[in-house]
Amino acid sequence: xxxxxxxxxxxxxxxxKRFGQFTANEGISVHIPRGQLTAxxxxxxxxxxxxxxxxxxxxxxxxxxxxxxGRDITGLAQHRFAHLGIAKSFQxxxxxxxxxxxxxxxxxxxxxxxxxxFWRPRASRRDWIEKAxxxxxxxGLQDKRRFRAVRLSxxxxxxxxxxxxxxxxxxxxxxxxxxxxxxxxxxxxxxxLILALAQERTVxxxxxxxxxxxxxxxxxxxxHQGRLLAQGSPDDIRANEEVRRVYLGxxxx
Amino acid sequence: MNLLxxxxxxxxxxxxxxxxxxxxxxxxxxxxHALAINILLFGLFxxxxxxxxxxxxxxxxxxxxxxxxxxxxxxxxxATHQVPWPVAIAVGMALGGLVALLIGALAIRTxxxxxxxxxxxxxxxVYFAAFHATSxxxxxxxxxxxxxxxxxxxxxxxxxxxxxxxxxxxxGFVAVAIWVLSRILNxxxxxVLEAIRENEQRARASGFDVERTKLLSFVISGLFCGLxxxxxxxxxxxxxxxxxxYHTSGQVMMVTLLxxxxxxxxxxxxxxxxxxMEHALTAVTERWQLIVxxxxxxxxxxxxKGIWGxxxxxxxx
Lengths: 253, 317
Prior knowledge:
- The complex is a heterodimer of chains A (253) and B (317).
- With 253 residues, chain A is α/β, with parallel strands linked by helices.
- Helix content of chain A is 36%, strand content 24%.
- In chain A, helix 6 (184-200) links the parallel strand 8 (172-176) and strand 9.
- Chain B has helices at residues 2-13, 15-29, 33-55, 64-81, 85-107, 112-132, 134-137, 163-186, 188-198, 200-206, 210-236, 246-259, 266-284, 288-302, 306-316; strands at 143-144, 150-153, 156-159, 238-239.
């Protein structure tokens, strides 16, 4: 089987995940178009996080296939996904709490190259440090580089999370509720960052705040009760009767 | 305090030299040289254990297996096969690493308390195997005759029955070991260990092969512990079965925690404190472990970073 859709950077076919008797995702076939911003939405329990966990390699699918950049990557070990160019920032802040802000990013930069170099001082790789510093500047944390990650505010930790995800220069950046728990100002600045990032690479994000994504996304995937309800442009989605009924309905009046 | 905290970065940079200097001066300040050697070697054991416990963040209850096989490997070669001591020590060390590879391969996928239990169970298998292989290990009676009375290099002779000489002979190995350990901790590989300790899931998502890294760190830890065991066999001229027992695994955990897990010099401080206390208290009471136990509880409750770790944290503030 080949990848029939060259416009899609990532494509899933009949992706299914079961946990015992419970089916969290069933037969999801979607595509994440190259160079665009795709939003994955759906009510609580729709299976968004499960879906994200599968396409980032954290969960192996029970059935179905994942194609990335023209190759079938179903069932690869999770750490291979980062090497292929898929990076994920987590819904719950997921950092190296006791390491410095700089080291959090530096070690993630290192990850693509070397896990098994036992002898050289890690600081001898100036390029790793410089790249980490550039990324910190990008997310606005350069002044906090010496802080331990655990001492950052929630918004700053989310920004650091973004820098860590970017460390691998991913082709596909997956963001799981990047604005969760943020103040309106923090949300705005992180959305600006996301939009800037979406200019240069493919981004897919899970988001609850509908207003936030309707205006900016190129493509929207709607999940409902573990199944795909619809995929299309924001206008398609707004016009979709079924989506209105199960999801937009409440707020659309 | 300000002066001290200004000195910390320099001290960290030169931690190997400073550690060796302190260890070189130690027996001159310590009246009991035999005890000083025990502290030195148990400190090395702790430093090896710390790689798994303090730096990779995995609580192992099986490190006696690496220490003990290192001791038996080296001891048997010297006592019954008259193998030259450098070879015997190298083999002891390698055996520590090999047993770590075997136990690690089975245990490394389990986490938390399960990892502790699996390592404990597998180490007990090694204990009972050694216990019953009496023709090889001497079983319950222990292995005797691990004699290395002197070093002979041409006409130059170093009497190793003299405790101070023996101390500095051992320190030669310990110095190289902590230098190597420091390089490893400072390397990119050392960074991955810390990342795994801090957040395994994030490390995996960043692209690290977490399972392989953990196994490798376990094996390297086993090599250091095997070396400590091999040197102990020579130091004591005997190997007792208790070196493989779970008490020893518990003791090295305690020593590392006492000194400060994840600190470079902590295990030596911990070994010094623990063994000196044992030495002093056994002279007073048979129930010395009760006192040590109480102190240990107090320490874990009030100074979870251990003696050295708490001190460093104070200076750093």
